[in-house]
Amino acid sequence: MKVTLVQMNSVGDKALNLANARALIERAVVQERPDWICLPEVFDFIGGSRAEKMAAAEELPGGPAYEMCQALAREHKVFIHAGSILEKAPGEERLHNTSVAFNREGEEVARYRKIHMFDITAPDGAKYHESAAFKPGDSVVTYDCEGLTVGCAICYDLRFSYLFQALADKGVDIVALPAAFTLVTGKDHWEVLCRARAIEMQAYLCAPAQTGAHKAGHETRFTYGNSLIADPWGHVVAKASEGPGLVSSYVDVDRIRKVRAMIPVAQHKVKLAV
Known about the structure:
By secondary structure, the chain is of the alpha/beta class. The protein has helices spanning about 15-30, 50-55, 65-75, 160-170, 185-200, 255-260, 265-270; strands at about 1-5, 35-40, 80-90, 95-100, 110-115, 120, 125-130, 140-145, 150, 175, 205, 210-215, 220-225, 230, 235-240, 245-250. It is built from seven helices and 16 strands. Helix 1 runs parallel beside helix 3 (about 65-75). The termini are far apart.
């Protein structure tokens, strides 16, 4: 199965972001001919004020980001894992950060809400408080992609190995990790964590990322990019260059089987008393 990751520089302009996402998906279809396409985290809207985030959010199913990805999946007969979309949470003053996956017929096959909220002060002093604007999800989500099992995670989830162990227990072959990793943390932690999770799960880790600058209030913030695909041995088999664009590789089922046979960690797991 051929997979393509879309790297974007989304900003606080939803119409522009959707136009750019559409153009990159259509370019991927023509140039790469993939079976599965994955967009980055909050591809539809990043930054802005709380009020602007709320205004940009969608009720799912429906809304322009959802319907665009659904229509493109149906038109081009390709799986589209719609990175993450700002989703309205009924009765809440917060949003969900939500991945939605569509099959080749444009049918929704999975919906995952980001579990772990990025509430930190980064080494450069920038403060992030996702839980003020976003309500976390609480479900481990997988879906079938023509015989391969795809697991769902988003950005900061990457730092929580127990989620990936839960996905491994569900037999995932691929994990989609749309992200908007900060520049300051990404340069030190992004690749090593992606490779570690792929090794732990003995599965492919497909991580499309935001790149470049965006405005958050009066601040300019920078995302790290470096979208990548890591194989079950932890090798980075494809990696994006700077700027918006595409990166592609193949998911090799025989490679997954070989790695799992070589080091059968699933059979060696021990339940520890806590």
